[in-house]
Amino acid sequence: MKVTALSLLSALAITTAPTAFASYTPAQQPLQADPSEYVPLHPHLEARSRELLAKYPLIDTHIDLPATMRTIHRQPMDAIPKLNVSHPGHFDIPRAKRGGLAGAFLTANAPCPGAYGRDVGPDFLNPTETVQHVLESIDLVKNTLAYYPSLLKAAKTADDVRQAFSEGKLAVLMGLEGTHGLSNSLSTLRMYAELGIRYVTLTHVCHTSFASSNGGGAGTSGSTLPPVHPGNGLTPWGITLIRELNRLGVMVDLSHTSDQTARDAIRHSAAPVVWTHSGAREVWNHPRNVPDDVLSLIGDGPGQNGGIVLSVLFSTFIDPYNATVARVVDHIEHIASIVGKNHVGLGSDFNGISAAVKGMEDVSKWPNLIQELLYRGWAESEIQGVMGGNLLRVMEEVEKVKLELRDTPPSPAIYEKRRDLPAHEWGGPNMAYLAPDVVKIVVEQKRLRDEL
Fold this sequence. Notes:
Blueprint: H1 5-16, H2 46-55, E1 58-63, H3 65-72, H4 93-99, E2 101-109, H5 129-147, E3 152-154, H6 158-166, E4 170-177, H7 186-195, E5 197-201, H8 236-248, E6 251-253, H9 259-268, E7 273-278, H10 292-295, E8 308-311, H11 315-318, H12 325-339, E9 344-346, H13 366-375, H14 380-404, H15 436-451
Parallel strand pairs: 1-2, 2-4, 3-4, 4-5, 5-6, 6-7, 7-8, 8-9
Organism: Kwoniella newhampshirensis
EC number: 3.4.13.19
Signal peptide: 1-22
């Protein structure tokens, strides 16, 4: 799309008066970033940006690498040897090293069931393939770590990230994008946590039994999803999930959620919350960005949640008509003006977006963002926080809550609309697999059920 002076003026008029989510539609193609070799945004600050990247870890909280590996390879593990040469998308190891990336959350996810023609119905009874997709993504990450022991290091805690940085290795962490990947089970959540999942995004672009989504993700018109839950926020089942996440020390991620889900989660979470890949709605009016009234709930003041907003690099969410590094920092600065500079960070959404901003086309371009912060006068300590220091502090606070809850037993709660428990069908033909006293219980349960 050729951007004319008139179209830019129109875009400016929209951004100064964000009253609806109609400012961008798929028919208006975003600016496509030029994926050329790295060119410093502010050449006189190049050396200084490199010094900071060598001194402090830069952490990206959202890279959809497993999804790319699964999308283009019949045998996704075939991608692993290519990651240290060149791989399609925004991420591979050589580019990460050139860009000074020190830590990356690789996401394990599954498409929302509607994306492949599955109707979960009003009870959100997910197809079990979602768990398979998530587990296969986790398996990909673990096998990638095993293949590159001298380059990558598995991390779960803030100290793990620091240790990897001191060894000159890329710290690799994992997050789950969307609670549809839990298949309505807290047991599944606990197993994911054991396998290394460090945050759970409460929704992706679909509602779940736990929470309401804002929709409006990549490739959409930017319109919100019709509500399905009372209040369009967390469900009572979702509140149970929040408490279990706190107990496990898994971060609560509010990117993609409805505004009310975010408010509810902040109210119920005993630990800091995160937005792993979002922007500021006041800067660009898109439902995937965070409104000011929700941002005002984050900070260091009385009654505020000490969470963090990690700024995305998708041009559609930043400003599809002026998608630049400077515009990304506009988002960061606006968010910081409300939550404080110690509550902002970086979450690209690389490998999950069709168009990154110009100057941040892939993981090799992180110095440009550091240069823009330097250009605007951010202090070294503030830039250290944006790069990863703020996130590491939040991770430590989440770990502290886990420690405080160490005597709290796992939640025994089961999704009330599940139809597979009690598991009478497991008794086999004529209940031949059951002991006689178990048969008596099952017969009585079936009798009572039939009478209802």
